Amino acid sequence: MSEDQLVYLNGDYLPLPQAKVSVLDRGFLFGDGVYEVIPCYRGKPFRLQHHFARLAQSLLAIGLDNPHSQAQWRVIMRRLLAQYPDQDRTLYLQITRGSSGRRELAIPEDMVPTVFAMSSPLKQADPAVASRGIAVVTLEDIRWQLCNIKTINILANQLLRQRARDMGCDEAILIRDGYALEGSSSNLFIVQRGMLITPPPGPHLLPGVTRDLVLELAAAEGTARLEAAIPLAQLRQADEIWLTSSSREIMPVTRLDGEAVANGLPGPIYRQTANLYQARKASWQAEASW
Ligand code: PDD
User: By C-alpha distance, which of 33, 227, 222 is closest to 114?
Assistant: First the structure.
Protein backbone atom coordinates (compact mmCIF):
# COMPACT_ATOMS: atom_id res chain seq x y z
CA MET A 1 0.00 0.00 0.00
CA SER A 2 1.54 3.30 -1.08
CA GLU A 3 2.11 5.58 1.92
CA ASP A 4 1.56 8.75 -0.08
CA GLN A 5 -1.90 7.75 -1.29
CA LEU A 6 -4.68 9.99 -0.03
CA VAL A 7 -7.41 8.27 1.94
CA TYR A 8 -10.72 9.68 3.13
CA LEU A 9 -11.43 10.02 6.84
CA ASN A 10 -14.37 11.98 8.29
CA GLY A 11 -14.44 14.68 5.65
CA ASP A 12 -10.69 15.00 5.05
CA TYR A 13 -8.38 13.59 2.41
CA LEU A 14 -5.14 12.66 4.13
CA PRO A 15 -1.93 10.79 3.32
CA LEU A 16 -2.42 7.26 4.66
CA PRO A 17 0.01 7.56 7.64
CA GLN A 18 -1.86 10.64 8.90
CA ALA A 19 -5.28 8.98 8.94
CA LYS A 20 -5.88 8.18 12.62
CA VAL A 21 -8.93 7.28 14.70
CA SER A 22 -9.56 7.21 18.45
CA VAL A 23 -8.69 4.06 20.39
CA LEU A 24 -12.19 4.44 21.87
CA ASP A 25 -13.81 4.10 18.46
CA ARG A 26 -16.37 1.30 18.72
CA GLY A 27 -15.03 -0.15 15.50
CA PHE A 28 -11.66 -0.65 17.20
CA LEU A 29 -13.11 -1.85 20.53
CA PHE A 30 -16.04 -3.99 19.38
CA GLY A 31 -15.91 -4.40 15.61
CA ASP A 32 -19.02 -2.19 15.60
CA GLY A 33 -19.20 -1.20 11.95
CA VAL A 34 -19.81 -2.28 8.37
CA TYR A 35 -17.87 -2.16 5.12
CA GLU A 36 -17.95 -2.63 1.37
CA VAL A 37 -15.33 -3.71 -1.16
CA ILE A 38 -16.03 -2.45 -4.68
CA PRO A 39 -13.94 -3.53 -7.68
CA CYS A 40 -13.01 -0.59 -9.94
CA TYR A 41 -11.70 -1.09 -13.44
CA ARG A 42 -9.67 1.81 -14.83
CA GLY A 43 -11.25 4.25 -12.41
CA LYS A 44 -14.82 2.99 -12.73
CA PRO A 45 -16.66 1.09 -9.99
CA PHE A 46 -18.36 -2.11 -11.18
CA ARG A 47 -21.93 -2.89 -9.99
CA LEU A 48 -21.90 0.26 -7.87
CA GLN A 49 -25.66 0.38 -7.30
CA HIS A 50 -25.57 -3.17 -5.93
CA HIS A 51 -22.79 -2.26 -3.51
CA PHE A 52 -24.66 0.88 -2.42
CA ALA A 53 -27.78 -1.22 -1.84
CA ARG A 54 -25.92 -3.77 0.27
CA LEU A 55 -24.18 -1.03 2.25
CA ALA A 56 -27.61 0.47 3.01
CA GLN A 57 -28.85 -2.94 4.19
CA SER A 58 -25.80 -3.50 6.41
CA LEU A 59 -26.17 -0.04 7.98
CA LEU A 60 -29.87 -0.60 8.58
CA ALA A 61 -29.20 -3.98 10.16
CA ILE A 62 -26.90 -2.49 12.81
CA GLY A 63 -28.95 0.68 13.30
CA LEU A 64 -26.63 3.24 11.70
CA ASP A 65 -27.74 6.03 9.36
CA ASN A 66 -25.95 6.25 6.06
CA PRO A 67 -23.53 9.14 6.66
CA HIS A 68 -23.57 10.14 2.97
CA SER A 69 -25.95 10.38 0.05
CA GLN A 70 -24.98 8.42 -3.05
CA ALA A 71 -23.89 11.71 -4.64
CA GLN A 72 -21.60 12.42 -1.69
CA TRP A 73 -20.15 8.91 -1.79
CA ARG A 74 -19.45 9.37 -5.49
CA VAL A 75 -17.51 12.57 -4.83
CA ILE A 76 -15.33 10.73 -2.31
CA MET A 77 -14.87 7.73 -4.58
CA ARG A 78 -13.96 9.87 -7.61
CA ARG A 79 -11.35 11.74 -5.62
CA LEU A 80 -9.75 8.51 -4.36
CA LEU A 81 -9.81 6.82 -7.76
CA ALA A 82 -8.51 9.91 -9.58
CA GLN A 83 -5.11 9.20 -8.03
CA TYR A 84 -4.85 6.03 -10.15
CA PRO A 85 -6.93 6.62 -13.30
CA ASP A 86 -5.43 3.78 -15.33
CA GLN A 87 -5.33 1.10 -12.66
CA ASP A 88 -7.71 -1.61 -11.57
CA ARG A 89 -8.32 -1.05 -7.84
CA THR A 90 -10.74 -1.96 -5.12
CA LEU A 91 -12.49 0.73 -3.12
CA TYR A 92 -12.89 -0.01 0.56
CA LEU A 93 -15.63 1.88 2.44
CA GLN A 94 -16.01 1.52 6.19
CA ILE A 95 -18.43 3.11 8.63
CA THR A 96 -18.12 2.50 12.34
CA ARG A 97 -20.35 3.83 15.11
CA GLY A 98 -17.61 6.18 16.32
CA SER A 99 -16.51 6.99 19.85
CA SER A 100 -18.50 8.20 22.86
CA GLY A 101 -15.34 8.89 24.84
CA ARG A 102 -15.62 5.77 26.96
CA ARG A 103 -15.82 2.00 26.60
CA GLU A 104 -19.35 0.79 27.18
CA LEU A 105 -21.30 -1.98 25.53
CA ALA A 106 -24.74 -0.31 25.34
CA ILE A 107 -24.89 2.22 22.52
CA PRO A 108 -24.96 5.83 23.73
CA GLU A 109 -27.24 8.37 22.00
CA ASP A 110 -25.97 10.88 19.47
CA MET A 111 -22.99 8.93 18.20
CA VAL A 112 -21.06 10.45 15.29
CA PRO A 113 -19.90 7.69 12.96
CA THR A 114 -16.34 7.30 11.74
CA VAL A 115 -16.24 7.18 7.95
CA PHE A 116 -13.19 5.83 6.17
CA ALA A 117 -12.46 5.07 2.52
CA MET A 118 -9.37 4.07 0.59
CA SER A 119 -8.43 2.26 -2.56
CA SER A 120 -6.06 -0.68 -2.94
CA PRO A 121 -4.52 -2.36 -5.98
CA LEU A 122 -6.76 -5.10 -7.39
CA LYS A 123 -4.66 -8.22 -7.77
CA GLN A 124 -4.61 -9.40 -11.37
CA ALA A 125 -6.23 -12.81 -11.70
CA ASP A 126 -3.67 -15.62 -11.74
CA PRO A 127 -4.17 -17.47 -15.07
CA ALA A 128 -3.43 -20.74 -13.24
CA VAL A 129 -6.73 -20.33 -11.35
CA ALA A 130 -8.75 -20.43 -14.59
CA SER A 131 -6.73 -23.27 -16.08
CA ARG A 132 -6.16 -25.46 -13.01
CA GLY A 133 -8.65 -24.26 -10.40
CA ILE A 134 -8.14 -23.89 -6.66
CA ALA A 135 -8.02 -26.27 -3.71
CA VAL A 136 -10.46 -25.80 -0.85
CA VAL A 137 -11.22 -27.47 2.43
CA THR A 138 -14.58 -27.81 4.15
CA LEU A 139 -14.66 -26.40 7.68
CA GLU A 140 -17.38 -26.13 10.30
CA ASP A 141 -18.93 -22.65 10.17
CA ILE A 142 -18.03 -21.08 13.51
CA ARG A 143 -19.53 -17.66 12.64
CA TRP A 144 -22.58 -16.03 14.19
CA GLN A 145 -26.23 -15.89 13.08
CA LEU A 146 -26.11 -12.65 11.04
CA CYS A 147 -23.69 -13.49 8.25
CA ASN A 148 -25.83 -11.50 5.79
CA ILE A 149 -24.49 -8.26 7.31
CA LYS A 150 -21.16 -7.11 5.89
CA THR A 151 -19.77 -6.27 9.30
CA ILE A 152 -16.10 -5.47 9.93
CA ASN A 153 -16.27 -8.05 12.73
CA ILE A 154 -14.92 -10.93 10.67
CA LEU A 155 -12.59 -12.61 13.14
CA ALA A 156 -14.19 -16.01 12.51
CA ASN A 157 -13.86 -15.64 8.72
CA GLN A 158 -10.22 -14.70 9.19
CA LEU A 159 -9.48 -17.70 11.43
CA LEU A 160 -11.24 -20.02 8.98
CA ARG A 161 -9.30 -18.60 6.03
CA GLN A 162 -6.04 -19.01 7.92
CA ARG A 163 -6.89 -22.63 8.75
CA ALA A 164 -7.50 -23.26 5.06
CA ARG A 165 -4.16 -21.61 4.22
CA ASP A 166 -2.36 -23.69 6.85
CA MET A 167 -3.79 -26.78 5.16
CA GLY A 168 -2.40 -25.66 1.80
CA CYS A 169 -5.79 -24.51 0.47
CA ASP A 170 -6.95 -21.22 -1.06
CA GLU A 171 -10.35 -21.05 0.61
CA ALA A 172 -12.62 -22.79 3.09
CA ILE A 173 -16.19 -23.80 2.29
CA LEU A 174 -18.19 -23.34 5.46
CA ILE A 175 -20.55 -26.07 6.67
CA ARG A 176 -23.40 -25.45 9.09
CA ASP A 177 -25.79 -28.20 10.20
CA GLY A 178 -24.55 -30.37 7.34
CA TYR A 179 -25.11 -27.75 4.61
CA ALA A 180 -22.48 -25.93 2.55
CA LEU A 181 -23.12 -22.18 2.68
CA GLU A 182 -20.29 -20.06 1.27
CA GLY A 183 -16.55 -19.46 1.47
CA SER A 184 -14.79 -17.42 4.15
CA SER A 185 -14.95 -14.44 1.75
CA SER A 186 -16.80 -15.78 -1.28
CA ASN A 187 -20.13 -17.27 -2.36
CA LEU A 188 -20.67 -20.86 -3.43
CA PHE A 189 -22.07 -22.40 -6.62
CA ILE A 190 -22.17 -26.01 -7.76
CA VAL A 191 -23.15 -27.56 -11.07
CA GLN A 192 -24.92 -30.88 -11.04
CA ARG A 193 -26.19 -32.53 -14.24
CA GLY A 194 -26.17 -29.13 -15.98
CA MET A 195 -28.05 -27.34 -13.18
CA LEU A 196 -26.35 -24.36 -11.53
CA ILE A 197 -27.17 -24.38 -7.80
CA THR A 198 -26.38 -21.80 -5.10
CA PRO A 199 -27.68 -21.58 -1.53
CA PRO A 200 -30.61 -19.16 -1.11
CA PRO A 201 -30.08 -15.81 0.63
CA GLY A 202 -30.58 -15.95 4.37
CA PRO A 203 -28.90 -15.15 7.67
CA HIS A 204 -26.04 -17.59 7.15
CA LEU A 205 -24.44 -16.11 4.04
CA LEU A 206 -23.55 -12.78 2.52
CA PRO A 207 -25.76 -11.66 -0.39
CA GLY A 208 -22.81 -11.37 -2.78
CA VAL A 209 -22.86 -8.85 -5.60
CA THR A 210 -20.91 -11.29 -7.79
CA ARG A 211 -23.33 -14.07 -6.86
CA ASP A 212 -26.21 -11.96 -8.19
CA LEU A 213 -24.34 -11.18 -11.39
CA VAL A 214 -23.57 -14.88 -11.99
CA LEU A 215 -27.27 -15.69 -11.55
CA GLU A 216 -28.14 -12.84 -13.94
CA LEU A 217 -25.69 -14.11 -16.57
CA ALA A 218 -26.97 -17.67 -16.20
CA ALA A 219 -30.56 -16.43 -16.63
CA ALA A 220 -29.64 -14.46 -19.78
CA GLU A 221 -27.90 -17.56 -21.18
CA GLY A 222 -30.82 -19.84 -20.37
CA THR A 223 -28.69 -21.99 -18.02
CA ALA A 224 -30.84 -24.04 -15.66
CA ARG A 225 -30.39 -22.59 -12.18
CA LEU A 226 -31.73 -23.08 -8.70
CA GLU A 227 -31.37 -21.40 -5.31
CA ALA A 228 -31.40 -24.35 -2.93
CA ALA A 229 -29.62 -25.60 0.17
CA ILE A 230 -26.59 -27.75 -0.66
CA PRO A 231 -26.00 -30.71 1.69
CA LEU A 232 -22.34 -31.62 2.15
CA ALA A 233 -22.93 -34.97 0.42
CA GLN A 234 -24.24 -33.13 -2.65
CA LEU A 235 -21.19 -30.83 -2.64
CA ARG A 236 -18.95 -33.89 -2.74
CA GLN A 237 -20.77 -35.25 -5.79
CA ALA A 238 -20.85 -31.97 -7.73
CA ASP A 239 -19.70 -31.90 -11.36
CA GLU A 240 -18.36 -28.38 -10.80
CA ILE A 241 -17.81 -26.14 -7.77
CA TRP A 242 -17.15 -22.39 -8.00
CA LEU A 243 -16.54 -19.62 -5.50
CA THR A 244 -17.30 -15.98 -6.38
CA SER A 245 -16.31 -12.59 -5.03
CA SER A 246 -15.93 -9.02 -6.27
CA SER A 247 -12.15 -9.10 -6.13
CA ARG A 248 -11.58 -12.68 -7.39
CA GLU A 249 -14.60 -12.98 -9.72
CA ILE A 250 -15.36 -16.68 -10.41
CA MET A 251 -12.92 -19.30 -9.15
CA PRO A 252 -13.31 -22.93 -10.19
CA VAL A 253 -12.67 -25.34 -7.33
CA THR A 254 -10.92 -28.48 -8.55
CA ARG A 255 -9.86 -30.04 -5.24
CA LEU A 256 -12.14 -30.48 -2.25
CA ASP A 257 -10.69 -31.87 0.98
CA GLY A 258 -7.77 -33.36 -0.95
CA GLU A 259 -9.97 -35.12 -3.56
CA ALA A 260 -10.43 -34.12 -7.19
CA VAL A 261 -13.75 -32.44 -8.03
CA ALA A 262 -15.16 -34.56 -10.92
CA ASN A 263 -12.21 -34.95 -13.37
CA GLY A 264 -10.10 -32.42 -11.45
CA LEU A 265 -10.30 -29.68 -14.09
CA PRO A 266 -12.40 -26.51 -14.36
CA GLY A 267 -15.69 -27.50 -16.01
CA PRO A 268 -17.43 -26.33 -19.19
CA ILE A 269 -20.15 -24.32 -17.45
CA TYR A 270 -17.49 -22.48 -15.47
CA ARG A 271 -15.66 -21.59 -18.70
CA GLN A 272 -18.85 -20.43 -20.37
CA THR A 273 -19.89 -18.30 -17.38
CA ALA A 274 -16.39 -16.85 -16.90
CA ASN A 275 -16.44 -15.77 -20.57
CA LEU A 276 -19.86 -14.18 -20.13
CA TYR A 277 -18.56 -12.40 -17.04
CA GLN A 278 -15.60 -10.91 -18.95
CA ALA A 279 -17.87 -9.96 -21.86
CA ARG A 280 -20.21 -8.18 -19.44
CA LYS A 281 -17.29 -6.28 -17.92
CA ALA A 282 -16.02 -5.28 -21.38
CA SER A 283 -19.41 -3.97 -22.53
CA TRP A 284 -19.89 -2.12 -19.25
CA GLN A 285 -16.40 -0.60 -19.54
CA ALA A 286 -17.26 0.71 -23.01
CA GLU A 287 -20.42 2.45 -21.74
CA ALA A 288 -20.58 6.12 -20.73
CA SER A 289 -18.65 7.05 -17.60
CA TRP A 290 -20.29 6.71 -14.18
N1 PDD B 1 -15.76 -10.36 0.57
N2 PDD B 1 -19.19 -14.04 1.38
C3 PDD B 1 -18.36 -13.43 2.24
C4 PDD B 1 -18.32 -13.90 3.64
C5 PDD B 1 -17.58 -12.34 1.80
O6 PDD B 1 -16.76 -11.71 2.67
C7 PDD B 1 -17.63 -11.94 0.44
C8 PDD B 1 -16.84 -10.79 -0.11
C9 PDD B 1 -18.51 -12.62 -0.42
C10 PDD B 1 -18.66 -12.23 -1.87
O11 PDD B 1 -19.38 -11.04 -2.01
P12 PDD B 1 -19.17 -10.06 -3.24
O13 PDD B 1 -19.40 -10.86 -4.47
O14 PDD B 1 -20.17 -9.01 -3.04
O15 PDD B 1 -17.73 -9.56 -3.17
C16 PDD B 1 -19.27 -13.65 0.08
C17 PDD B 1 -15.02 -9.19 0.14
C18 PDD B 1 -14.51 -9.26 -1.26
C19 PDD B 1 -13.94 -8.91 1.15
O20 PDD B 1 -14.22 -9.11 2.30
O21 PDD B 1 -12.89 -8.48 0.77
Answer: 33
> Which phi and psi (to 5°) does residue 223 adopt?
-70, 135
Q: Are 191 and 251 in contact (CB under 8 A)?
A: no
CATH for the stretch 127-285: 3.20.10.10
- Residues 70, 155: Cα–Cα separation, whole Å: 29
Q: Is 150 a catalytic residue?
A: yes
Nearest protein CA to atom 5 of ligand 1, as residue: 185
Q: Would the pTM of this model clear 0.90, i.e. be above it? A: yes
Region 218-244: mean pLDDT is: 98
> What ligand 1 atom has the least distance to the C-alpha of 213?
13
- Choose the residue to mutate in 149, 186, 214, 248 for probing ligand 1, maximizing ligand atoms within 8 Å of C-beta: 186
Q: Is 185 in the pocket of ligand 1 (CB under 6 A)?
A: yes
Residue 133's pLDDT band (boundaries 50, 70, 90)?
A: very high
CATH class of 6-121: alpha beta
Out of 149, 187, 189, give the residue to mutate to test ligand 1, the one with the largest number of ligand atoms within 8 Å of its CB.
187
Does residue 56 surpass a pLDDT of 90?
Answer: yes
Domain ranges (residues) in the chain? 6-121, 127-285
> CB of 43 closer than 6 A to ligand 1?
no
Q: If you average pLDDT over residues 123-142, what whole number do you get?
A: 96
Helix (H) or strand (E) holding 117: strand 114-121
Cα of 63 from ligand 1 centre, angstroms = 21
Of the chain, the percentage scoring pLDDT greater than 70 comes to: 100
184 three-state secondary structure:
coil
